Amino acid sequence: MRWLFPGSSVRLDAPCLDCGLEMTVEMRDEDLLRVEPDTLVGYTSSEVGGDASTRPFR
What we know:
about 35% strand, mainly beta, 3-stranded antiparallel beta sheet, single chain
């Protein structure tokens, strides 16, 4: 989020598309300030930077 809102806190509130429960993610630049629930997992359909052998499982 640094490139959109540098130095500012950004909070995202959204329902889980699977179960409908509320999710919250708050971040500032590259720092995660708050994640609820703490078991939150994200997925992407596109490749996310770095060498494929060192990327986390998606």
